[in-house]
Design a protein that fits this description.
Elements (H helix, E strand, L loop, with lengths): L1 E5 L9 H10 L4 E4 L29 H9 L6 E4 L9 H14 L4 E5 L5 H6 L7 H17 L3 E4 L4 E5 L13 E4 L5 H8 L2 E3 L12 H10 L8 E5 L5 H10 L3 E5 L5 H15 L1
Parallel strand pairs: 1-2, 1-10, 2-3, 3-4, 4-7, 7-8, 8-9, 9-10
Antiparallel strand pairs: 5-6
């Protein structure tokens, strides 16, 4: 089982390049940066994590710029979006950003995606909250066409373009792994249709790991090799017994959560995590 960390990079958080270097030095597999372009001041949409939304949600850096900084000071560390809000992005531009980062990093991108929870945020980008999953599906399928075809075209309900040329193409073939976040009733449908992995969040009172056999059965029924779908758990408990249980359950990657704090607070936490995983 591999290990990574997720952290909101901000102006008051340890720098993206510094934490990336520290993670690689300590033997971690990956770093994950979330995405929010902004948070509407109305705060109408409830945050799934509780009542008070932490300020890093509207202070976070652009994930691709932050991951590029991480890429330039590392050689092995994998670079994950956790998650990229595809429903708020132009698919042609995003396809180029993902492919460019994959080229710069020599094939280290993990493209974590999700539908998002903030209705007003995505509506500011022109996406209807109730249609977000259909929008996400088409944008991902369109990006796959761009990554894998010399002359890509797509004609859907939400994404439409005639034949285009777009380079660079990703180093990873056919493209960087598309890792689907979420744990809803149709999440596995999306994972099996266009994903290379599943990335649920560990929350108190919930055990998404128990659903792994269901995902594998659904993949097999659809004609996919269940082993072709990786399992990554966000906010894994930093406890040896808990990690052993994840490994036994078939989790491929445990991702620890870190607060948006400076280097003096973060580096000791990384040392503690490193001691635990080694």
């Amino acid at each position: 089982m591999d290990f990574g960390v997720v952290i909101f990079p901000t102006e008051y958080t340890i720098r993206p390049d510094e934490i990336a270097r520290a993670l690689e030095e300590r033997g971690f597999e990956s770093v994950w940066f979330p995405e929010h372009t902004h948070i509407p001041a109305s705060r109408r949409s409830p945050w799934p994590g509780g009542a008070a939304l932490p300020k890093e949600y509207w202070h976070s850096y652009d994930p691709f710029l932050a991951l590029t900084a991480a890429a330039t000071v590392t050689t092995k560390l994998r670079l994950g979006t956790g998650i990229c809000l595809v429903v708020e992005r132009d698919p042609i531009v995003t396809a180029k950003e993902v492919a460019t980062l994959d080229r710069i990093s020599n094939g280290r991108v993990l493209f974590g995606i999700g539908g998002g929870w903030n209705a007003e945020e995505m509506e500011n980008h022109g996406t209807d909250f109730k249609k977000r999953w259909r929008v996400l599906r088409e944008r991902v399928l369109a990006m796959k066409e761009i990554w894998t075809k010399e002359e890509a075209e797509f004609h859907g309900e939400f994404v439409r373009f005639d034949k285009i040329w777009s380079h660079p193409k990703p180093v990873q073939k056919p493209h960087p792994p598309v890792i689907m976040g979420g744990d809803g009733p149709k999440t596995f449908d999306r994972v099996v249709e266009f994903g290379n992995g599943w990335m649920p969040i560990s929350r108190p009172g919930q055990n998404p790991v128990a659903k792994i056999p269901v995902l594998r059965q659904q993949a097999e029924k659809a004609g996919r090799d269940p082993k072709s779908i990786s399992i990554s758990l966000f906010f894994a408990k930093p406890d040896k017994a808990a990690l052993d249980a994840l490994r036994t359950a078939g989790v491929d990657r445990a991702i620890f959560g870190l607060p948006s704090e400076g280097r003096d607070a973060i580096l000791p936490k990384l040392d503690a995590f490193a001691q635990l995983i080694h």
